[in-house]
Amino acid sequence: MTRFGDFEPLHVLLSSSPRSAHPLSQLQHNNDSAVLTGPSANPSTAPVGINPECGIPPVGQNGSLANIANIIACALSMIVVLLLVIWTTRRRAAVGRVEFRLFLALYFLTLPFQLLSTGAFLTQGSTALTVITAIHAGLVAATFWALLGNAIVSTQVVEDGTLSSIIPFDFFILAFFAATTYISLDVGFSFTHVFGPSNPPESLHSIPLFVLTSIWPGAAAVLYFLLMTYVVLGMLNEVRPMWYFVLAAVLFVLSQLDFFLLSKVICNNVSSHRIDGTFVATVLETATVTVLYFAWRSITEESWEDDMYYPR
């Protein structure tokens, strides 16, 4: 019987998932590795994931290039996001410029950690991979707070770019990052047994980690869309910018559908275990962020008016 907080059903759907490093490390540290079968039984040759139905072999094994498609997608995405950061910085008078730039910076940081956690470079269940994946999880949770925080700032409930905006904005970034990273590490290494071990081991059960890595991102994205709909249609009385947000929502949903449904199909039937669908999800997620930039740009001013004021 599957319970709320079980990661096991996700690992059946996903081919290469960064979420696997925490429970996999927990299984090995608590001598529950009997749960690992097939390719996952030998850590030195195990593909990314826990008993994956399709797994990409580690780099160098049988000529494997690791998850090469996603590696390229992450590298190109980093270039795109860096350009977005530069363009955002140049829009000096735009509402929420500082906050939106922080969101872009956080997304940028998730990309190299995603590359390492899903790239089949490191031994599955190793200390290095568990730490990298924990940091990646913390960055993802913080990124989705930054996304939601930008929507809150757009309502002008507090003045953007001021201490009253930046201090709580940064506080929650640090809070989400620290909490998610610590819980991920505790699940992986069982420091305190507060967040594990899972019972039974094969269920890979952790409600806090499940909420922060699987529920929170989706909830934050939905709340962001609802708030921006209110800002654009209710406060600005505009329609055209709303199409950017609709397009971004569609791209984000497609990225998740690809990650959960298409990835295994590509791995098994298209590439013969050479690549999976994670590169498609990465491209779609970066496209989502890019569209969000143009959506933000469409509802903000680029610079202050340079006309001098002459009193009458």
From TrEMBL:
The GO molecular function terms of this record are:
unfolded protein binding
- GO BP terms: protein folding
The UniProt entry, under InterPro entries, shows: Chs7
- Per the record, what is one GO cellular component? endoplasmic reticulum membrane
Under Pfam families, the record lists: Chs7
UniProt KW keywords: Membrane, Transmembrane, Transmembrane helix
Q: Where are the transmembrane segments?
A: 68-88, 100-122, 128-148, 169-195, 215-236, 243-266, 278-296
Q: Does the keyword Transmembrane apply?
A: yes
Q: Give the protein's recorded name.
A: Chitin synthase export chaperone
